Each structure stands twice: as structure tokens, then as C-alpha cells.
Automatic annotation (TrEMBL):
GO molecular function, one term: GMP synthase (glutamine-hydrolyzing) activity
Binding partners and assembly: Heterodimer composed of a glutamine amidotransferase subunit (A) and a GMP-binding subunit (B).
KW Ligase (keyword) present: yes
Domain GMPS ATP-PPase: 2-185
Gene name as annotated: guaA
The keyword ATP-binding appears for this protein: yes
Official protein name in the record: GMP synthase [glutamine-hydrolyzing] subunit B
PROSITE patterns referenced in this protein's UniProt entry, alphabetically: GMPS_ATP_PPASE (PS51553)
Pathway: Purine metabolism; GMP biosynthesis; GMP from XMP (L-Gln route): step 1/1
Length: 305
């Protein structure tokens, strides 16, 4: 386990040395990784840093308002409403790797736009060790590693938590005094709900995934999962009332893990699963059926795309 006080001091010194007298932007998603990176960078260089949160339309329910409230102490925080631009980019894209690259390029475009406005030469990211391993091993591209375009308009990219595992990042978050809603929150993929939608990403599918994931997170909180969410798989026949419907199939996934490199599907009580399916199908008339994913990692990845 990382020695937090020593790590924090060294990370701040590294950030100051890397950025110098220049300005930087930090990609802030609200997850623990980017939140720790942002806090370290903000404490290291202060007003030289501009935190940027991009609302892609693929975020958790209520995420944007939560970010604005949690990080209101960062006066330079910018919230970018980019939903339409990201859905336009993703139109017709069905390949999982292409999705990740499209989203990575979209993020960089947004960050470069802000960087030009504030004259920033550096980009700070919350990349952690498993991100790098999975991208380098061709398991999947992460939007902030393998999903980046080959050429970016930054003098350098600074990744202060690049050698930490998720549980170590949480330790640093607690040492930094970040709120529990940040330090203990479940992992959320950088590409957002796009990797919880099999096939083309649309606003309709994103809305279904967002609401269903909200239900899953609420209902499975007592199980203390490493990660729990809902994914939209496709369509199937169902019955609602006296009518035949062709609605969305939603998969519920809940896993236990230490670092995300391997994971085991959780054994969930049948009554809990029934309550989840009842809420998801009852609260969204477009959902026809709900299934539970019992696959471990490996052979499956935690996310779907």
C-alpha cells in the first residue's frame, strides 16, 4: 500500500516541476482518479490550473450538478455542455474500440479549446496503473491512454497517479480530505455510458442506461460492490399490460474486486434481483426485460464495450 503523505508530497513536487510557470488544464470527471489528480494539481499550482468537466451526455444521473457542488472551491472550474457534439461524433459507430477512440478524440478537442482560451500548455489526467496495463495489453483502449489521438496540442501530459491501483488512489483521496462521495464512489468508465451500450450510442439508449444504472446503484448499495451498473444490450419481445412490445434488454452487473484487474460476479439475493427488475421495467416503459450477468473477469471484462 502506498505511503499517502509521502506520495502526496512527491506528486505535488512532480506536478510543479512538470508544469513550471505554465498553465494547465485538468480533465475532471468526478471519479476518484481524476478528483485526486485534480486536487493534487490544484494544491500544487493553484491558479495555474483550470479544471474542466465535460458533460458528454454519457454521465451518471445528476453527475454534473454534483461536480459543481463538490468542486465549487475551485473557482476556475469550467463545465462544458458537449452532449450534442459527442452524440454526433458517435452516430453510426458500433465497434467498441472505435467508440473509445472517438470519445478520446472528443475529450481532447474540448480540452484543447479550453487550453487555447486560458493559454495552457499542459494537460493533467487521472490515468491509473490498470488503465495503462489494459491499453498496453490491447485488452481495451482507455479514452485517456490508448484512446488518445496520436497528435495532441499540448506540450506535455501529466499523470500524477499513473502508478497507483484504485484502492491506493482511494487511500490518497481520504488523506487529501476529499468527501466520501468521491473517495468511496464506484468506478465509472471514462467513456461513460457509451461502454454500457452494445452497438450504436444514442440519446435514447443513454437515457435507459443512466436511469437503470441509478436503480442498480441504489438497490445494491448494501452489497458494497466494487462496481455495479446496468447495460443496454439490444431489443427483445416483451409484454406490458395487454400489449406486445419490442423493448430494450438491460443487463445488471455487480462485481467484487480489489483493483479491477480481475473480478468476481456477486451472488445477489433473488428477491433483490426481482426488486431491481421490477423497478427498471416499471420506471421505463421502453425496457422489456432485465437479465443478471454472472460472468467473472476473466473471461469477461467488467464493462461491456
Amino acid at each position: 500500500m502506498v505511503e499517502t503523505d509521502e506520495f502526496i508530497a512527491e506528486a505535488k513536487a512532480e506536478i510543479r516541476e512538470a508544469i513550471g510557470d505554465a498553465n494547465a488544464v485538468i480533465a475532471l470527471s468526478g471519479g476518484v482518479d481524476s478528483s485526486v489528480a485534480a486536487t493534487l494539481a490544484y494544491e500544487a499550482v493553484g491558479d495555474q490550473l483550470t479544471p474542466v468537466y465535460v458533460d458528454t451526455g454519457l454521465m451518471r444521473k445528476g453527475e454534473t450538478a454534483e461536480i459543481q457542488e463538490t468542486f465549487d472551491f475551485m473557482e476556475s472550474l469550467r463545465v462544458i455542455e458537449a452532449q450534442e457534439r459527442f452524440f454526433d461524433r458517435l452516430a453510426g459507430v458500433t465497434d467498441p474500440e472505435e467508440k473509445r477512440h472517438v470519445i478520446g478524440e472528443g475529450f481532447i478537442d474540448e480540452f484543447e479549446t479550453v487550453a487555447r482560451d486560458v493559454d495552457a500548455d499542459y494537460l493533467v489526467q487521472g490515468t491509473i496503473y490498470p488503465d495503462r496495463i489494459e491499453s498496453e495489453g490491447n485488452i481495451k483502449s482507455h479514452h485517456n491512454v490508448g484512446g488518445l489521438p496520436e497528435v495532441v496540442d499540448f506540450e506535455g501530459i501529466v499523470e500524477p497517479v499513473r502508478d497507483l491501483y484504485k484502492d491506493e488512489v482511494r487511500e490518497v483521496a481520504r488523506a487529501l480530505g476529499l468527501e466520501e462521495i468521491i473517495s468511496e464512489r464506484m468506478p465509472f468508465p471514462g467513456p461513460g455510458l457509451a461502454v454500457r451500450i452494445v452497438g450504436e450510442v444514442t440519446p435514447e439508449k443513454a437515457a435507459v442506461a443512466r436511469e437503470a444504472t441509478h436503480v442498480v446503484e441504489e438497490e445494491l448499495e448494501e452489497y458494497d460492490p466494487w462496481q455495479a451498473f446496468a447495460a443496454v444490450l439490444g431489443k427483445a419481445t416483451g409484454v406490458k399490460g395487454d400489449n406486445r412490445v419490442h423493448g430494450w434488454v438491460v443487463a445488471v452487473r455487480s462485481v467484487e474486486s480489489r483493483d479491477g484487474m480481475t473480478a468476481r460476479a456477486q451472488e445477489i439475493d433473488w428477491s433483490t434481483l426481482q426488486r431491481i427488475q421490477s423497478r427498471i421495467t416499471g420506471e421505463n416503459e421502453e425496457v422489456a426485460r432485465v437479465v443478471y450477468d454472472v460472468t467473472h473477469k476473466p473471461p469477461a471484462t467488467i464493462e461491456y464495450e
